């Protein structure tokens, strides 16, 4: 940290720093003058080398030391600079000559290196030639009235364990001398290069130009430092990993330190210290779009900043490993930690994260993967005695670790931040290996498996309202219900992101034969077309699920709109893998008890949700109502009523004026029936619903336990669907006879179901008097009566349309939203 500044001098008002990408070619360099024409009479511009130049120079120096051929590269780099000079100022002979001299000097240095005359200063001079050359080009582009400052004439530095340190007094003295010979004017200065205490050329290290700009802003006592780059500012996370990362309008120096250290590439961590010492505001802006305000980095965040979110940004550092020293004999023994870290220091190992439980039974730290073996060896050596006598037992290494850090001044004294972070990671099924939070409370870091890194980052980003909760969605069965659901998704999804912070991303679609998988997203409106004709690839449900459970998206959900038992068989495995499942398909809820139990067991372990409200009553809240009764302590005595939309519609419509078979065909056309209408007519569909409700009420009922009356003649029970439909009129005579008999007694036909507490379940057609409630329903109405302790003499009734693509798809959609909203809204937005 620099020493306290002398009385404010304000030698320049504004320092601008341009990185290599802003200086990629003559066109980019010629676009700089308007960016620095901000009205400040005293301006200092600090430049990096032209894009790619430093890499080329480093390679040339290496080649020369290895006695290789660097000449072609030298020629190319020289030509690139001379071409840029010609494009910037064709008639500026002084510029041309100066560049020719720079490249001649470079050639001499390279020849000396080739001849074995190496040395740090010569190598530094080669590495830093790019800044000398670019400063000349920028000076020419800016026009008259700009002086050029070779930073080696002013900056004096020394190497240190924590990076390059500045000799502030020596630098101030040299600056005063430089200013004495240069009248006050605007200045272009070289970044990256400096002089050592010994007067030799040196550099500030990789990406050192930001540091140069900060040091010069400090020395010149600037009011403001702008770092121009090719991004819009500091982002809340790496946008390659979190596409929804947002530009942070402001952040504090401390936050910038934390984020820069933990991998946010926009700023070099050292950059902050010189500006921080003088409280100089620092701003990150985009040369490609100067209209974007960028990010202000200030001594303190503006008031109220933390209200948006206590976490400002998230970073991931990969290629790490956990090293853990375990020992029974370490408990309560002073000096263990000191010895451990001294050993690591001795081995030159940098420790990124430290964590120790209060039992003192183990100390765990996170180090770079490349350093973990030297680290292990050093610790084993340091604790050799303790190993020998059993006080320590092991040095355990866990490779393939990433460190996720949540950073924000607003976390200080804000309860619940850790809970939210850990909750988000748990929901995304990310296991935490180690946790560290400094007493400053500005950073919580967790070590996780590297394979979970992107998913963890996205889940945490969403959890802190930095971006919507992203759910990877796969849909099976774009038939009557599925197709309608796709239309509902197409209409609603665009507004959903902003309204509820939920981003449902349809990434896979499948029918009975084929599937289409998309790395990004399939527009719901285009989904069916992706399967036709012969689109996508052959259906493989395991590959489908693996694609939906994408490693980089925090949450996964499969919507199964088929009536297939084969898909239902997959649910326990999917749920165990953390994939939420939503379905109107009744097979899982009413199928074999062992499979049903496996599904519930998987749910308990993984926490993934199973949404099946639409299996009973389509869009009606039948299961929800029953669950609420049970969860609040009521006892179910009976469920009875009409549970089939198709049969309700058929018996509401069937008065003898039209054949029953004609009505069945119409119901099928309206999308009320099951894909095989015999499932409705045989009573099987209603039996399934009774089983689902019974199990919801805690009864171990199975389909075989339900006493079902079938309307399907025996001769039609085993034929194919097409043949059944062709022979539908075989139903007419028996149904006609039944209707006439009922009418002759003043009764009407209805299809009823009943389940009682003792597990007795019946389904069939009943002739009812006109005053019966089920004779007063309309169209596809279901009518479900719950008789319970609380609703004993006057049952609780749920009534309404119980079939049809629209209402069923809405019921499925409701389950999807309930799950998605629960992912992100446990405590609502910070306020
Ligand atoms: N219709 C309604 O009112 C209600 C329906 N439901 C339930 O909704 C579900 C869908 O009904 P509906 O839309 O009418 O049925 P459809 O027959 O119209 O659609 C079924 C879809 O599932 C696909 N499919 C069938 N078998 C498989 C399989 N093994 N693997 C993958 N996909 C498969 C079909 O593909 P392909 O086209 O290739 O055959 C088709 O896309 C059913 O479970 C039904 O019980 C629930 C409540 C109400
Ligand atoms: N075919 C079923 C659809 C809903 O589950 C019915 O008619 O009720």
From TrEMBL:
<keyword id="KW-0915">Sodium</keyword>
<dbReference type="GO" id="GO:0046872">
    <property type="term" value="F:metal ion binding"/>
</dbReference>
<dbReference type="InterPro" id="IPR002912">
    <property type="entry name" value="ACT_dom"/>
</dbReference>
<dbReference type="Pfam" id="PF00742">
    <property type="entry name" value="Homoserine_dh"/>
</dbReference>
<dbReference type="InterPro" id="IPR001341">
    <property type="entry name" value="Asp_kinase"/>
</dbReference>
<keyword id="KW-0521">NADP</keyword>
<dbReference type="InterPro" id="IPR001048">
    <property type="entry name" value="Asp/Glu/Uridylate_kinase"/>
</dbReference>
<dbReference type="GO" id="GO:0009088">
    <property type="term" value="P:threonine biosynthetic process"/>
</dbReference>
<dbReference type="InterPro" id="IPR001342">
    <property type="entry name" value="HDH_cat"/>
</dbReference>
<dbReference type="GO" id="GO:0004072">
    <property type="term" value="F:aspartate kinase activity"/>
</dbReference>
<dbReference type="InterPro" id="IPR011147">
    <property type="entry name" value="Bifunc_Aspkin/hSer_DH"/>
</dbReference>
<keyword id="KW-0808">Transferase</keyword>
<comment type="function">
    <text>Bifunctional aspartate kinase and homoserine dehydrogenase that catalyzes the first and the third steps toward the synthesis of lysine, methionine and threonine from aspartate.</text>
</comment>
<keyword id="KW-0511">Multifunctional enzyme</keyword>
<dbReference type="InterPro" id="IPR054352">
    <property type="entry name" value="ACT_Aspartokinase"/>
</dbReference>
<comment type="similarity">
    <text>In the N-terminal section; belongs to the aspartokinase family.</text>
</comment>
<dbReference type="GO" id="GO:0005524">
    <property type="term" value="F:ATP binding"/>
</dbReference>
<dbReference type="Pfam" id="PF03447">
    <property type="entry name" value="NAD_binding_3"/>
</dbReference>
<dbReference type="InterPro" id="IPR049638">
    <property type="entry name" value="AK-HD"/>
</dbReference>
<keyword id="KW-0520">NAD</keyword>
<comment type="subunit">
    <text>Homotetramer.</text>
</comment>
<feature type="domain" description="ACT">
    <location>
        <begin position="325"/>
        <end position="397"/>
    </location>
</feature>
<keyword id="KW-0791">Threonine biosynthesis</keyword>
<dbReference type="GO" id="GO:0050661">
    <property type="term" value="F:NADP binding"/>
</dbReference>
<feature type="domain" description="ACT">
    <location>
        <begin position="406"/>
        <end position="483"/>
    </location>
</feature>
<dbReference type="InterPro" id="IPR005106">
    <property type="entry name" value="Asp/hSer_DH_NAD-bd"/>
</dbReference>
<protein>
    <recommendedName>
        <fullName>Bifunctional aspartokinase/homoserine dehydrogenase</fullName>
        <ecNumber>2.7.2.4</ecNumber>
        <ecNumber>1.1.1.3</ecNumber>
    </recommendedName>
</protein>
<dbReference type="GO" id="GO:0009089">
    <property type="term" value="P:lysine biosynthetic process via diaminopimelate"/>
</dbReference>
<dbReference type="InterPro" id="IPR019811">
    <property type="entry name" value="HDH_CS"/>
</dbReference>
<keyword id="KW-0028">Amino-acid biosynthesis</keyword>
<comment type="similarity">
    <text>In the C-terminal section; belongs to the homoserine dehydrogenase family.</text>
</comment>
<keyword id="KW-0547">Nucleotide-binding</keyword>
<dbReference type="GO" id="GO:0009086">
    <property type="term" value="P:methionine biosynthetic process"/>
</dbReference>
<dbReference type="InterPro" id="IPR045865">
    <property type="entry name" value="ACT-like_dom_sf"/>
</dbReference>
<keyword id="KW-0067">ATP-binding</keyword>
<dbReference type="GO" id="GO:0009090">
    <property type="term" value="P:homoserine biosynthetic process"/>
</dbReference>
<dbReference type="InterPro" id="IPR042199">
    <property type="entry name" value="AsparK_Bifunc_asparK/hSer_DH"/>
</dbReference>
<keyword id="KW-0457">Lysine biosynthesis</keyword>
<dbReference type="InterPro" id="IPR036291">
    <property type="entry name" value="NAD(P)-bd_dom_sf"/>
</dbReference>
<dbReference type="GO" id="GO:0004412">
    <property type="term" value="F:homoserine dehydrogenase activity"/>
</dbReference>
<dbReference type="Pfam" id="PF22468">
    <property type="entry name" value="ACT_9"/>
</dbReference>
<keyword id="KW-0418">Kinase</keyword>
């Amino acid at each position: 940290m620099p020493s306290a500044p002398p009385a404010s001098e304000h030698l320049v008002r504004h320092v601008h720093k341009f990185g290599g990408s802003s200086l990629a070619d003559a066109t980019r360099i010629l676009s700089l003058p308007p960016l620095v024409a901000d009205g400040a009479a005293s301006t200092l511009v600090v430049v990096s080398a032209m894009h790619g130049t430093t890499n080329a120079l480093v390679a040339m120096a290496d080649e020369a030391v290895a006695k290789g051929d660097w000449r072609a590269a030298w020629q190319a780099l020289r030509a690139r600079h001379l071409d840029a000079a010609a494009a910037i100022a064709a008639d500026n002979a002084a510029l041309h000559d100066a560049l020719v001299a720079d490249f001649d000097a470079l050639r001499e240095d390279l020849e000396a290196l080739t001849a074995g005359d190496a040395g740090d200063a010569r190598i530094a001079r080669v590495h830093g030639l790019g800044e000398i050359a670019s400063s000349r080009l920028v000076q020419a582009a800016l026009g008259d009235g700009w002086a050029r400052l070779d930073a080696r004439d002013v900056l004096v530095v020394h190497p240190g364990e924590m990076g390059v340190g500045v000799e502030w007094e020596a630098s101030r003295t040299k600056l005063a001398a430089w200013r004495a010979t240069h009248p006050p004017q605007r200045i272009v200065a070289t970044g990256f290069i400096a002089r050592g205490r010994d007067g030799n050329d040196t550099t500030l290290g990789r990406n050192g130009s930001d540091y140069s700009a900060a040091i010069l802003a400090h020395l010149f006592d600037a009011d403001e430092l702008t770092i121009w780059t090719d991004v819009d500012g500091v982002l809340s996370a790496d946008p390659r990993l979190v596409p929804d990362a947002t530009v942070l309008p402001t952040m504090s120096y401390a936050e910038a330190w934390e984020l820069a250290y933990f991998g946010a590439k926009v700023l070099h961590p050292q950059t902050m210290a010189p500006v921080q010492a003088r409280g100089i505001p620092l701003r990150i802006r985009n040369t490609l779009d100067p209209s974007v305000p960028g990010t202000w980095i200030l001594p303190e965040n503006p008031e109220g900043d933390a209200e948006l979110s206590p976490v400002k940004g998230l970073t991931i550092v990969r290629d790490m490993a956990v090293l853990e020293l375990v020992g029974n004999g370490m408990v309560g023994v002073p000096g263990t930690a000191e010895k451990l870290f001294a050993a690591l220091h001795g081995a030159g190992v940098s420790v990124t994260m430290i964590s120790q439980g209060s039992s003192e039974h183990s100390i765990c730290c996170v180090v770079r993967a490349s350093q973990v073996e030297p680290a292990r060896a050093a610790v084993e050596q340091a604790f050799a005695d303790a190993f020998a006598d059993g006080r320590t037992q092991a040095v355990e290494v866990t490779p393939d670790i990433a460190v996720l850090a949540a950073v924000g001044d607003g976390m200080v004294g804000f309860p619940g931040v850790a809970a939210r972070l850990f909750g988000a990671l748990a929901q995304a099924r990310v296991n935490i290996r180690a946790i560290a939070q400094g007493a400053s409370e500005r950073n919580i870091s967790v070590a996780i498996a590297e394979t979970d890194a992107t998913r963890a980052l996205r889940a945490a980003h969403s959890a802190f309202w930095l971006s919507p909760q992203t759910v990877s969605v796969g849909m099976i069965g774009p038939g009557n219900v599925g197709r309608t659901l796709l239309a509902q998704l197409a209409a609603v999804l665009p507004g959903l992101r902003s309204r509820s912070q939920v981003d449902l991303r349809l990434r896979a679609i499948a029918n009975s034969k084929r599937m289409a998988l998309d790395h990004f997203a399939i527009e719901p409106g285009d989904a069916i077309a992706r399967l036709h004709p012969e689109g996508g690839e052959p259906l493989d449900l395991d590959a489908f699920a693996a694609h939906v459970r994408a490693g980089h998206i925090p949450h996964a959900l499969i919507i199964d709109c088929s009536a297939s038992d084969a898909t239902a068989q997959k649910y326990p495995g999917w749920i165990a893998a953390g994939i939420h499942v939503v379905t109107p398909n009744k097979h899982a809820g009413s199928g074999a008890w062992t499979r049903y139990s496996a599904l519930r067991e998987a749910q308990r372990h993984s926490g993934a949700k199973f949404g099946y409200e639409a299996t009973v009553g389509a869009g009606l809240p039948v299961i929800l109502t029953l669950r609420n009764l049970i969860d609040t302590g009521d006892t179910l005595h009976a469920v009875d009523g009409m549970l089939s939309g198709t049969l309700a519609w058929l018996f509401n419509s069937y008065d003898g004026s039209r054949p029953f078979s004609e009505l069945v065909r119409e119901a099928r056309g309206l999308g009320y029936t099951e894909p095989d209408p015999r499932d409705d007519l045989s009573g099987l569909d209603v039996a399934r619903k009774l089983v689902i409700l019974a199990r919801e009420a805690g009864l171990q009922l199975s389909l075989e336990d339900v006493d079902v009356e079938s309307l399907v003649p025996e001769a039609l029970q085993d034929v194919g669907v097409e043949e059944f439909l062709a022979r539908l009129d075989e139903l007419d005579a028996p149904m006609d006879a039944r209707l006439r008999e009922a009418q002759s007694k003043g009764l009407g036909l209805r299809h009823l179901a009943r389940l009682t507490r003792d597990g007795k379940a019946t389904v069939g057609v009943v002739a009812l008097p006109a005053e019966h409630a089920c004779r007063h329903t309309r169209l596809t109405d279901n009518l479900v009566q719950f008789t319970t302790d609380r609703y004993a003499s006057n049952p609780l009734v749920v009534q309404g349309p119980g079939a049809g693509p629209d209402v069923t798809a809405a019921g499925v959609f409701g389950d999807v939203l309930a799950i998605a909203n629960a992912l992100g809204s446990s405590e609502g937005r910070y306020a």
